[in-house]
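Standup notes
- DV: blocked on the single-chain target, sequence here:
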Amino acid sequence: MHVEKIVLNASPLILLCNAELDFILPELFAEIIVPETVWQEIVGGPHVDRAAQLLPELAWLKKEPINPVPDVIRWDLGMGETEVLSFAVEYSDYTPVLDDILAKKCARSLGIQTIGTGAILILAKEQGLIESVEQSLRTLQNVGLWISESIIQMLKRQAGE
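- DV (later): unblocked, structure below
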């Protein structure tokens, strides 16, 4: 799948920043949007981590206010997921980056294709930005990603590892 523009949810952005893998995002995507609620969740949250400190300095990241769309709101998602999907409903040329299973189900019901953190790592490996999807996933695990071993193995296979 070819993706040029993305709208990011908090978890993938936090994980990539905290694992020092955020550099891959502007290399892979021409435009990167973060909804206002997601931004506030990261920089205004209780944790002062690398992501919270780094976000205001990322020139390639564009913060946008979003008006939630009724079809998304009915799913009772978190505000971040709701705004990410609402943006994708309004701007269909943006691909939502989500790891939340319910948010992905909501996207499918709306006919929206999503990608997750694992897919971003596969794209990064294809572009020569990282050496190993498995190694990057293990780094993400060390900073808080919960991922099953079977999903790791599936992503490794998809990346040709």
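- Follow-up: The first strand starts at residue 5 and ends at 8.
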